[in-house]
TrEMBL record:
Organism: Thermovibrio guaymasensis
Reactions performed catalytically: 4-CDP-2-C-methyl-D-erythritol 2-phosphate = 2-C-methyl-D-erythritol 2,4-cyclic diphosphate + CMP
Binding site for 4-CDP-2-C-methyl-D-erythritol 2-phosphate: 9-11, 35-36, 57-59, 62-66, 133-136, 140, 143
Cofactor note: Binds 1 divalent metal cation per subunit.
Site residues, Transition state stabilizer: H35, T134
EC number: 4.6.1.12
Pathway as given in its UniProt record: Isoprenoid biosynthesis; isopentenyl diphosphate biosynthesis via DXP pathway; isopentenyl diphosphate from 1-deoxy-D-xylulose 5-phosphate: step 4/6
Keyword Acyltransferase attributed: no
Occurrences of domain 2-C-methyl-D-erythritol 2,4-cyclodiphosphate synthase (ranges): 2-155
Subunit note: Homotrimer.
EC top class, as a word: lyase
Name by which UniProt lists this protein: 2-C-methyl-D-erythritol 2,4-cyclodiphosphate synthase
An example molecular function term from Gene Ontology annotations: 2-C-methyl-D-erythritol 2,4-cyclodiphosphate synthase activity
Lineage: Bacteria, Pseudomonadati, Aquificota, Aquificia, Desulfurobacteriales
Amino acid sequence: MLRVGIGYDAHRLVEGRKLVLGGVEIPYSKGLLGHSDADVLLHSICDAILGALSLGDIGELFPDTDERFKGISSLLLLKEVNSTLKSRGYKVLNVDSVVVAQKPKLKPYREQMVKNISSVLDILPSQVSVKFTTTESMGFEGKEEGISAQAVVLIGEVEKW
């Protein structure tokens, strides 16, 4: 059986935080505010996987009221979500994602993001798409108040593939 999930996440940009996207620390004057490292790209992928499994969202699995997740790398959260996926007899077949940010320019970091995501999900880099766009200075992303990400994930039963 094939299943599809969609994920979305957004966090506010603030001074005094590191900017981490796709598990890559990106040099920038601001970072994303959140309980974990606030990696919106990985959070949206987690939500897409959990949605495909009908298991709710990342906040249910890793609540911001739990100190164990304070400052945690979202690569570890994605690894845990992937373990849950595998334990239910599925694997990720494809990830398609987009990060919406006016600044900074993210293209130089795409290859490492794809490597990080594919490594954690135990799939080929060719099964992971990471894209970037701006909003031409419209909305909270365009005004550089925050960054958002969306992801769609296709999963399939392991014995079928």
